[in-house]
Backbone:
């Protein structure tokens, strides 16, 4: 594979002027480049994770001993609600979408996402939704109905304050932002891959982001519809869920879990894509059974939409339906196992370097398998009836989502840190952070299985002594402290390495995918001359030169056909043959202003200021018109 021809200094200067953001604060506010927006998602999501971690610490402080008084019952409900909401809606999916936004165009040889301004709008919408949720702490009307917000407890009768309105409106904005990001990523993967990068040559991480995007497009509208109906019920009394008005609270559960169970795999699938990338790089060999891994990811994505009643085994659904959903819940373990065996075979047959990202992946495999075993257990309806709403479910949930998602995310942050900063993170602190986190996690969450067996319900703010729960709760709380220490060590390592780490160069890990062919950090235009892919592992394959047609097109792209035009190849879906050269939009303030108008409209609805909401809605229309108005490329 020919990586990127250097071109001339003049050509690079032209490309840099064309693709760079404007200088100063104006440039920061109007930026649309995929790397800037992706990195903003990553940093913002990490910040929200820290807030969610503080709330988790408060939960464990309250439960560390019987009858503790760190939090009262109302505060405890608010804290566990916001902890779950932040981790599920503000951290995991935005973090993984941000990684995809930054690295997928680099991995597939593109220069940007296809709708750059829409991508920027998605970020500002995400930030606006997050700020609405965080503002609830300032007002004192904090959501307290759990991250699942079940009616009728979240209806106007039992939750009359504005806490649930903060939740419903903020989550709606977050889900729209997720749909925007998914649309961008699906289109760029299907239509803007480098020439020669057929579907069978795409990196597994790119496959995982493609499947995540498709799942988001199918799953997120359900929670948006559910949230809007509950908000309409709360504001106008339309009884969608209120049984006294012939509504049905189970409608919420069906809509929520039609979103909520695919949501688990919307997080897990790209996380396993990270694992495949790291395993392949540090085992120093191609991934074993690549076609089977792609098939397994696809099977997981499809099956995940048939599992939602897995969460509703205790609501009185007919036994035949329970049996069908139970079988589907167990069936999904098969493609998950295919991936695990592929990773183990790759490690077994490779020459492994046990660097920090590989350690986080190894820890993930151990924890993910343990979480998968308990997942098969709760897939059995009779067993689920025994542990339903107990701490066993809390333990399972965290083994699958913290161990199965957060550990791969930390592997990704360490693995791609050189590409972001141009410096390699320190190995000593990196390995120390892994071992502290691994020990802390298991000490924190493994005892919770036994708490479930001993009958401790989830979501209780205190408990009496003498029930046999004291030792397990103490261990769990101490483990949370150790886990927190590991995260702090990880953060210190990255902070120090950003200025003092050794210079990375383009490919410090000797990896195989195209992002490592670009400089570290990559230039604004990613590649001086767009690559042509001739193998599944392009940086490990013998050179494949550009054909005459591609050379002519990419030469034109090195020096734009019109001054200031941002140009990118469009290719066919299956075999990535060149179709045309497309032009992309440049920096604009209107995505920010439009998202701000949406946020103000939501605030107007929140506080019943309907005039403000209508005026802000008109502002959204004005923003969209100005955003889409024709203008020169510059």
Residues:
């Amino acid at each position: 594979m020919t990586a990127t021809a250097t071109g001339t200094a003049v050509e690079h200067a032209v490309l840099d002027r064309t693709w760079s953001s404007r200088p100063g604060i104006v440039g920061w506010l109007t930026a649309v480049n995929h790397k800037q927006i992706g990195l903003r998602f990553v940093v913002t999501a990490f910040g929200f994770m820290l807030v969610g971690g503080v709330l988790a610490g408060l939960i464990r402080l309250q439960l560390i001993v019987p009858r503790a008084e760190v939090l009262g019952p109302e505060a405890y409900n608010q804290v566990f609600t916001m902890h779950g909401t932040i981790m599920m809606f503000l951290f995991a999916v935005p973090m993984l979408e941000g990684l995809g936004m930054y690295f997928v165009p680099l991995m597939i040889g593109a220069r940007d996402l296809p709708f750059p301004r829409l991508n920027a709008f998605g970020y500002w919408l995400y930030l606006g939704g997050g700020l609405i949720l965080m503002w609830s702490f300032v007002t004192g009307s904090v959501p307290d109905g759990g991250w699942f917000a079940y009616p009728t407890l979240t209806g106007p009768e039992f939750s009359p304050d504005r806490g649930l309105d903060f939740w419903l409106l903020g989550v709606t904005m977050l889900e729209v932002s997720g749909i925007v990001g998914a649309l961008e990523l699906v289109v760029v993967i299907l239509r803007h891959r480098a020439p020669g990068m057929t579907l069978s040559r795409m990196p597994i991480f790119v496959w995982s982001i493609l499947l995540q995007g498709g799942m988001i497009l199918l799953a997120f509208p359900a929670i948006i519809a559910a949230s809007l109906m509950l908000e309409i019920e709360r504001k106008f009394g339309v009884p969608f869920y209120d049984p006294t008005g012939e509504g049905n609270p189970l409608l919420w559960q069906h809509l929520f879990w039609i979103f909520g169970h695919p949501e688990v795999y919307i997080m897990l699938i790209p996380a396993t894509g990270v694992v495949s990338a790291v395993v392949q790089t540090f085992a120093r060999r191609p991934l074993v059974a690549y076609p089977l891994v792609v098939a397994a990811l696809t099977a997981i994505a499809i099956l995940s939409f048939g599992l939602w009643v897995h969460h509703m085994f205790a609501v009185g659904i007919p036994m035949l339906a329970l049996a069908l959903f139970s079988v589907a819940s167990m069936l999904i373990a098969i493609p998950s196992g295919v991936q695990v065996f592929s990773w183990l075979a790759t490690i077994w047959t490779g020459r492994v370097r046990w660097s920090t990202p590989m350690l986080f992946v190894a820890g993930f495999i151990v924890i993910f398998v343990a979480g998968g075993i308990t997942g098969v257990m709760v897939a059995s309806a009779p067993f689920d009836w025994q542990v339903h709403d107990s701490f066993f479910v809390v333990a399972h949930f965290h083994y699958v989502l913290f161990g199965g998602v957060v550990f791969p995310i930390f592997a990704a942050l360490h693995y791609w840190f050189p590409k972001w900063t141009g410096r390699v993170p320190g190995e000593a602190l990196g390995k120390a952070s892994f071992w502290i986190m691994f020990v802390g996690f298991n000490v924190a969450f493994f005892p919770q299985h036994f708490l479930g067996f001993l009958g401790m319900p989830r979501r209780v703010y205190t408990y009496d002594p003498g029930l046999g729960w004291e030792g397990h709760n103490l261990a769990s709380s101490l483990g949370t402290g150790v886990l927190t220490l590991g995260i702090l060590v990880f953060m210190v390592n990255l902070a120090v390495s950003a200025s003092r780490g050794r210079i990375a160069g383009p490919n410090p890990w000797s990896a195989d995918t195209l992002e490592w062919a670009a400089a570290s950090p990559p230039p604004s235009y990613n590649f001086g001359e767009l690559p042509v892919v001739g193998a599944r592992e392009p940086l490990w394959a013998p050179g494949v030169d550009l054909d005459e047609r591609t050379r002519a097109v990419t030469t034109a792209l090195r020096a734009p056909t019109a001054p200031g035009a941002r140009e990118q190849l469009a290719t066919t879906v299956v075999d990535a043959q060149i179709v045309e050269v497309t032009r992309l939009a440049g920096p604009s303030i209107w995505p920010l202003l439009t998202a701000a108008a949406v946020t103000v409209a939501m605030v107007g609805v929140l506080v019943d200021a309907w005039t403000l909401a209508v005026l802000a809605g008109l502002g959204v229309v004005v923003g969209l018109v100005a955003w889409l108005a024709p203008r020169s490329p510059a």
Notes: The first strand starts at residue 566 and ends at 571. The chain has a mean pLDDT of 92. Residues 594-628 form one domain. The first helix runs from residue 9 to 19.
